[in-house]
Amino acid sequence: MEATFRALSEHGYSDLRMRDIGDEMELTRQVIHYHFDGKYDLMSSFLEYVIDQYEGSVAVDAGADLRTELDARVEQCLFGPEFEEFSHWDRMKVYHELYAHAQNDERHRELFNEHYERIRGSIVEVVEDGIDEGVFREVDPELVGQLITDAIHAARGRRISLGHDDAPEQARRAVDEYIVESLLADRETTDD
Amino acid sequence: MEATFRALSEHGYSDLRMRDIGDEMELTRQVIHYHFDGKYDLMSSFLEYVIDQYEGSVAVDAGADLRTELDARVEQCLFGPEFEEFSHWDRMKVYHELYAHAQNDERHRELFNEHYERIRGSIVEVVEDGIDEGVFREVDPELVGQLITDAIHAARGRRISLGHDDAPEQARRAVDEYIVESLLADRETTDD
User: B11 to chain A, minimum CA–CA distance in Å?
Assistant: First the structure.
């Protein structure tokens, strides 16, 4: 998988050949084909690997209040996690490239949908807990969770596609100041 | 340009050959090469064409109040405009595919950046007017404009890449209910 990652970073998805992946780990194409049914199958396994690694790493302090937990989840999606061999942004570059291709690829689309569902779900859950505890006002948790997930996704994409290095930090501030802040129950006064 | 559009829709950016564009308008590659310095130059011209058409069409009722104007601009970016030959989503599919490739393409990155700047700018302007007129509270217009632009972009991308047909409508509601609503000056009570 790390070899696939290196080959993808170097060649991009459209130009990637099985041979490039073999080169990265000194294996022949035959050996790779023994384990994977072609480039398509390998890419699907690779996407699952990237997503698993990403999701497995989200850890939030159990004692934190709900606003802090929400902010921590947003930050995790925007800035981390860091692993040994490749940076968060190396991974995200590949992730966003495969995402753009998912319109033509049912299996990838399914994997991205499952992942999106889980990321949004983890945010929705915190919003729901906040409403139950009276910390947040009565909002539509699904709609808020989706809005925050979208803001995160677009900011990462802007950093990658447009070179806006400050996009993730902008998104962190904007989500905190204009979405999370407006959820707080004690800000609300009128029920109009 | 319409021939380029048809060829792009059919073959995608990575697999597009000059010959495919020629086929769409019954011209030879030689004639296209006489006008454009290769696929790259043609793609840049095409991107400018799509962006110009898109931007030129944003029209907002001059007598509308500022919240209505802001909502109208958001809707325009999410749902329209419709032109004769191709739908908004046909165009957006190509737009988002080129966007994902802009990380490797300085000229496209520049064009997307200029376009992004103008779209965000048109939203920032309305927010600034709203603050001046006391309709919106004192917020950072740049940060709010960026957040709204990001939410729009991600929702369009989700519809295209993940097949979420309701993503634009979700984004319209979420931006209105959780961002624009929280900008309203008369909702604010405490200056903490």
Answer: 11
Q: Which residues of A touch B94 (CB under 8 A)?
A: none
Answer whether residue A192 shows pLDDT above 50. no
Tokens of A119: 């990321």
Q: Which one of B100, B146, B153 has the shortest CB-CB distance to A100?
A: B100
The interface predicted TM-score of the complex, written ipTM, equals: 0.83
Per-residue model confidence (pLDDT) at position B47: 80
Q: Looking at the complex, report in whole angstroms how far the Cα of residue B23 sits from the nearest Cα belonging to chain A.
A: 23
CA–CA separation, A70 vs A60, rounded Å? Answer: 9
Are B116 and A177 an interchain contact pair (Cβ–Cβ within 8 Å)?
no
Domain CATH for A175: 1.10.357.10
The count of domains in chain A is 1
How far apart CA A54 and CA A52 sit, in angstroms, is 5
Across the A/B interface, how many CB contacts are shorter than 8 Å? 135
Show the DSSP H helices in chain B as ranges.
Answer: 2-11, 18-25, 29-35, 38-56, 66-79, 88-101, 106-132, 141-162, 167-174, 181-183
- Report pLDDT for B190: 45
Dihedral pair phi/psi, residue B152, rounded to 5°: -65, -50
In order, the DSSP letters of A95-151 are: HHHHHHHGGG-HHHHHHHHHHHHHHHHHHHHHHHHHHHTTSB-S--HHHHHHHHHHH
Q: Within the 38-97 window of chain B, which residues sit less than 8 Å (CB to CB) from chain A?
A: 93, 96-97
How high does pLDDT run on average in chain A?
Answer: 82
pTM score, whole prediction: 0.84
Domain that holds residue A88: 2-186
pLDDT at A101: 83
Residue A123 has pLDDT above 80, yes or no: yes
The phi, psi pair for B136, rounded to 5°, reads -105, 150
State the Cα–Cα distance between residues A142 and A117, nearest whole angstrom.
Answer: 11
Q: Is A153 a domain residue?
A: yes
Domain annotation covers residue B192: no
